[in-house]
Amino acid sequence: MAEKCGSEKASSSSPNLICPLCLDIFVEATILTSCGHTFCRRCLKKYDLTHQDLDHMVCPLCREITKLSANRVDDLRLNVSINGCVDDYHAKCGGMNAVLEMCQKCTACKSLKDAVSFCLTCHCYMCDKCLHSHQQLTMFFDGHEIVSMDDVIEGKVSIGHLFEKCSIHKQENKDMFCEDCKVHVCQKCVLVGHRAHEIKNQVDFEQELRRKVTDLAQRCADKKAELEKNIQNIEIQRHEVHTAVQTLLDDVKQAYNIKAKELEENLRNLTEQINALEHSFDDELDVLKSKDRQRIKSICSSVTLVDNDRLGHLETDTLSAHVLLCEELDAMLKEVTDHTSAEAIKKKAHEKRFKLADDTQLDLGSISGSDPKMEVIQYIDLRGVMFGMARYSHSTVAIGYGWNAQGIDIIDSNGGKQRYSNILSFNDMNCYDLNLQRDGAFCVSTGSTAYIYSRLGCRKATIHVRNNGNALRVNSGSTDEIIITNYGKQVYIYDPTGSTLKHTVQTKHDTRQASTTRTGLIVTSSCDADPSVVTVYDRDGNAGESLQAPKDVYPFATVDEQDRVYVASVDTKNNSVVIRLYDLDGLNLKERVEFNALNMTLVWNWCYLVSLSQDMLAFACYKKLYFIKVSL
Fold first, then answer.
1. How many CB atoms lie within 10 A of CB 489?
2. The pLDDT of residue 425 is above 90
3. Contacts by 324-329 with C-beta closer than 8 Å and gap 24+?
4. Which carries the bigger pLDDT value, residue 609 or residue 3?
5. Which sign does the torsion angle of CA 191, 193, 195, 200 carry?
């Protein structure tokens, strides 16, 4: 089999040995196990660099999902058959660059001799005998323009675009491209079998794709420069943060010199607090810097795959792969660059103050910042009753509507609204709850069933859970696990694809909402059930002490990106909401701050609290949405 493959390849440029991504002969041909499509191992590694946060790989050709192990692409199986054909091909053709080293054969006769010239008029290669005939038979070939193959090879002369001959109409060039069938055709084929299809001139089609790739490459360079500039700005803010911290330290030391030596222990404690502040600010800045670097890495890896000099003549699979790669890269380039977080961290550092103790205390003083507080910075009327809410970005939420106003809205903290249109079926769908995964996929509850849709709108999975007559509630963890509750005493945890139930955690109380921490703990809220409690569980069902709300007060909890827990206690009778911040202490919640009560319009008992960023919450009830600024 290998000998046959190699023989065929030696005589033609069969696409069977061409990688759809790099458009070159396979190097370490590797199989994606879910669909069987084959690519170079190095190409798969470049593609995987843009999806390091996923535990699977999406095939660039068919979008099937292949699970990855700890070693990712290195553990995928080699395609022994294809690699054997490649070895035979190289052995027969004389090396890895055989495609470029092969001598062009005469196309003017059947001798298959090496071509010595090319006729620009006839558009064919000629051996020495055909060249002699061209020169002697002036009646037929007078005025024909002939160039030598040496000039063609050295690049002194361009012979233009050569088209493949049609296999049906032998004399016709396949110089057209059918958009409907994704194949190259001649003009006669268009009239016979593709009359009503969308047809493009092949040269125009390839130039259009080249322009698109060139534009993406330029935008990648611009985005990279923007992100690198943002990283430099982060370092500038870091210097100011360090300056502010050093000022605090100097103030503390000055107070120490004024007071007695017995305050040395107090000095050490204060210094530790300041160092902890510095490390905290450094960690926050490093997170911002790491995110920008990862985006640069992803963009560079994607553009390497997309910007390929061998895009000249695309077949169906190759076309599909590169179109999808271009779409993914285009989506990455549209992501908004965070220009404000570093300045916000600097502001927090400057707000810290050293408060000197009075003379009645044998104490240096304390480190303080602004008093913890929260305020509503934006109030928005919704077009219908809110049934579900999810974080969409650091300043944007997705609102799901049920029977009264179907579909999903995307609303930002400045009051901007738009219907979510990537998935058209959402417009007439009852959306009782929803959650956005990190790859852009949506998990949506329509009542008794949950569906997972890709970023491009394709349904990827269906999840059925017994719902006791109530709508399913969905959430996700830091690893994109799907968390589902059904108003019973269970929490169901599925893998990111929705195909595998990984855990079922038994709870002590009826559970309406659930969130997970980065360490895998589950924070549950019974909301308007009786009793109204918030409880933390591990994956084995072990529980901490529940926080129980007073009568007629309903708790709604959310977990932020630092694993801090916010609990909103909703009092519908008094139209007030009190939000408290808790730290996790094992499986228990330790209260850190009780914020000032917020006056809100509360019509019913079903609410939603979502953490958008370190200093932004979103709260929704009935037809009202509030964006809340948090200052610690």
1. 15
2. no
3. 324/60, 324/61, 324/63, 325/21, 325/47, 325/60, 326/212, 326/213, 326/216, 327/456, 328/50, 328/302, 329/216, 329/220, 329/299, 329/302, 329/303
4. 609
5. negative
Q: For residue 234, give the amino acid letter.
A: I
> Can you give the pTM of this predicted structure?
0.47
- The third-level CATH classification (topology) of the domain covering 373-631 is Neuraminidase (2.120.10)
Rounded Cα distance, 236 and 498, in Å: 44
Give the residue-averaged pLDDT of 152-175: 66
Query: Does residue 617 surpass a pLDDT of 90?
Result: yes
Cα(206)–Cα(161) distance, rounded to whole angstroms?
Answer: 11
| pLDDT average, residue stretch 517-527 | 93
Looking at residue 93, its pLDDT comes to: 60
Task: Give me the mean pLDDT over the 46-75 stretch.
Answer: 84
SS3 527: coil
Residue 35 has pLDDT above 50, yes or no: yes
d(CA 61, CA 320) in angstroms, rounded, equals 6
Please determine, for residue 79, whether its predicted confidence score (pLDDT) is greater than 80.
Answer: yes
CATH topology of domain 2-120: Herpes Virus-1 (3.30.40)
DSSP H or E stretch at residue 283:
helix 264-306
Which residues does 91 contact at the CB level (< 8 Å), separation at least 6? 6
Q: Which residue has the tokens 């404690």?
A: 269
User: In whole angstroms, what is the distance from residue 302 CA to residue 50 CA?
Assistant: 7
Percent of the chain with pLDDT over 90: 26
Domain-wise residue ranges, the chain = 2-120, 214-368, 373-631
Structure tokens belonging to residue 101: 């080293």
Residue spans of beta strands (DSSP E) within 507-622? 513-516, 522-525, 533-537, 547-548, 553-559, 565-571, 576-585, 588-594, 598-599, 607-613, 616-621
- 628 in Cβ contact with 566 (< 8 Å): no
Which tokens belong to 8? 């065929």
Decide: 597 and 576 in contact? Cβ < 8 Å.
yes
Distance separating alpha carbons of residues 401 and 384, to the nearest angstrom = 7
- Region 491-510 average pLDDT: 92
Asked whether 363 and 266 are in contact (CB, 8 A), the reply is: yes
